[in-house]
Amino acid sequence: MSASLSWIDLTAADRDKLRRVLNLFNEQGTVDELGLGSLRDAFSNALFPGTSVLQTRLRYVLFIPWIYREIESWGGGYDAAFEAKRMELGLIETLIESGDSEGIIGIRSRQALSQLASVVYWPLLVRWGIFLAGGNQGWYHTQFDGLVRRQKEVGRADDPGVVWTREPTWHPRLPAAPSGFPDEASFALTGEEADFLLGRIQERCGGSLLAWLAQEGSTSLAESFWEEPAALRAGGPIAERVELARRFSLHVEGAPLLYNLLLAELRHDVQRSDRDAALIDSYRGDLAEWAGREEAEAPFDTTSLWSFVARQGGRLVHPQQRFVEAWSRRVSEIGARRVVDDDFLRRLIANRERQLKGQRARVANRGRLLDWGGRVGVGRMSFRWPNVRRLLMDLHAGLGR
Fold first, then answer.
1. CA atoms within 13 A on the CB side of 265
2. What is the pTM assigned to this prediction?
């Protein structure tokens, strides 16, 4: 009997939470075989507030409010969720016709798209102070008629002498949609739009690397944020976070490499395939290359890591903390070059997977081992930088930098 999920009697908030959980299974860069995802996310949220690995282009931050403000202009009585979806799906075709197809959400699925851009960007709209009512998207849909009525009682920010008695739904200085929207649209930001977004980032994300690079960056940004010259000029707490993220990313990169090597060896013992033999050689080479970089650094300071997590308001998960502590301590004791054949670290990795997955752990489940694709959870943590880099490049193109 196959497993399934059903929508039972859930509130709009419950549905939003469950949808976000399900989205994680499709996110690139979120495969978390060894349970380090919460640490990765703590860095990502501190460095780049409001962002996610599903966000592609910055002007979606305006497309979504423009769509909803258009529906609000019709008055109450409409199914906001239905109308917004219809307009978002139509926007896909409009953006394709613009000639800049990079980052179009739904370019493959088209009308069958299930994960709308508004779902992806809604937390950002709240975090950056663009959606001022503060609720999630499901809440907005259920409160739509009341929010429309409230809008009639709120003056514009540029109306002289207006005394606000209620908070508007959307930021009062949100630029107006272009006259042809949504039948005409592109990802190119106008100067006014870029200035508005820069202001939102500076006000709501101050002290973050995102805010610093929004002000100091350009349309030419390095492939890694810890190599970006503008980031290196930040100094203070921002520079400390950047360095800790860089060092943590390098330090734990060896763990998934060792995990995949273990899987290749275990499966090779079962089926003696040339492919697994080649994978063993490949992962041994990857670990040797990682070890060379790791040994060029000072030993990793786990105390700084836990202090950072605590400052961010994160919860220290004791099994995760013990795993990282044991990994760091052993790497420091034996040196990174001996990690590849160290029995203690091999047992540590295998036990960590069993702890996380139980009977579904590949190191213990023959069926799952044989179904292993040859590479899982590998790669240095980038903390959403590829996506944030694209957003910042869009911003600076609009600012003319």
1. 14
2. 0.88
